[in-house]
Design a protein that fits this description.
Number of helices: 3
Strand order of the largest sheet: 1-2
Structural class: mainly alpha
Number of strands: 2
Order of helices and strands: EHHEH
Helix content: 40-55%
Distance between the termini: 35 Å
Length: 84
């Protein structure tokens, strides 16, 4: 099993604004919000929200470690989509 490496060193900022161009929580949420889920993800609740977060956990590593659901859920709660 090969997971994508996810490095979060700048919090909620998008990778487009990152000096080191690493993938962040905010960036991955922005991608799902803008391109993969019609209507966006910000208002997902209940099982739909759990499914999305579990998908991210199953397919990404953070600094070569398993992502903790609680940390991801907290970041998602505090995330605000980019205004384009």
């Amino acid at each position: 099993e090969c997971k994508l490496k996810w490095t979060d060193k700048i919090g909620q900022k998008s990778s487009t604004k990152s000096r080191n161009k690493e993938i962040t929580y905010g960036f991955i949420f922005d991608i799902f919000h803008d391109y993969f889920i019609e209507g966006g993800i910000k208002n997902l609740k209940g099982n739909k929200r759990k499914e999305l977060l579990n998908f991210i956990i199953e397919n990404f590593n953070k600094d070569d470690q398993q992502i903790k659901y609680e940390n991801l859920n907290k970041s998602f709660t505090n995330w605000n989509p980019l205004k384009v």
